[in-house]
Structure formats: C-alpha cells, structure tokens
Write a structure and sequence with these properties.
The chain has strands spanning 26-32, 35-40, 45-50, 55-59, 62-63, 66-67, 70-76, 79-84, 88-93, 100-102, 112-113, 117-118. It has 120 residues and is mainly beta. It has a domain at 26-102: Thrombin, subunit H, CATH 2.40.10. The strands form 4 sheets. The protein has a 4-stranded antiparallel beta sheet with strand order 1-2-3-4, with no helix packed on it. A 4-stranded antiparallel beta sheet has the order 7-8-9-10, with no helix packed on it. Strands 5-6 form a two-stranded antiparallel sheet. A hairpin with a 4-residue loop joins strand 3 (45-50) and strand 4 (55-59).
Length: 120
C-alpha cells in the first residue's frame, strides 16, 4: 500500500495576541467564540479576555469580608464557570453582574433521587 508523503508543511495563519503580560502566573486558559477565560494564580481570581473589545477583566473573588481563591475556569458562549475555594461551582454570565451558586455533589442533595425513589 503506498504512503502519502506531504510535500511541504504549512504554518497556520493568524496573529498572536498577548492577553496578560503582567507579573505572576496565569494558567488554564480556555477559549469559546470571542472569550478566553483563565486563572490568575497571583491574585486568586478568574479573568476573562474579550477578543472583540480587547479588554481583560477580573471576576471578583471577594465574598463578604473574605477573599476566596478561584480556579479551574472554563468558558462557553458568554458564561464563565469556575470553582471557588469554598467547594462551590460558580457561573457568571458576563452580560449580567451576579455570580450564580450551584450546590456541590454530595452535600445538600434532595432526599429522593428522580426515578429511584428514596435515597439510601
């Protein structure tokens, strides 16, 4: 069976964009459409970059009198999802202000399981 050998390598087109050149570590980037979300380890914040407006913004990690550490950011359409140090899963739509809270698995679960009846 004959093998196909490429005649030349091509370089993808596009322009590189520096999202955050600040001091500290930025990690775990994720991109969806015109947004990139990532963790800024030096501040413990989740940040997101809008490629259309060239803005880099932070999601506040201050709750009451406490500063929480946020990590594991992901992005889909206009929503950024991340984990807060309090073991909660949080979501924030960038078009609205409040952060939504989701209950973690294993805590505060309902007493019944749909289709299974009572939880053991």
């Amino acid at each position: 069976m004959p093998a196909v050998v490429p005649t030349s390598a091509t370089t993808p087109s596009g322009v590189g964009v520096t999202i955050n050149a600040g001091l500290g570590n930025q990690s775990d980037p994720h991109v969806s459409q015109n947004l990139a979300a990532y963790t800024d380890l030096s501040s413990g914040q989740i940040r997101y970059y809008n490629f259309l407006t060239a803005t880099d913004l932070a999601i506040s990690n201050v709750t009451g009198n406490e500063v929480a550490g946020d990590t594991l950011a992901d992005v889909y359409n206009n929503s950024v999802v991340f984990t807060r140090q309090t073991s909660l899963i949080l979501s924030r739509s960038i078009s609205t202000y409040p952060v939504m809270r989701y209950k973690p698995l294993g805590r505060d679960r309902p007493d019944t399981i749909p289709g299974k009846g009572e939880r053991p």
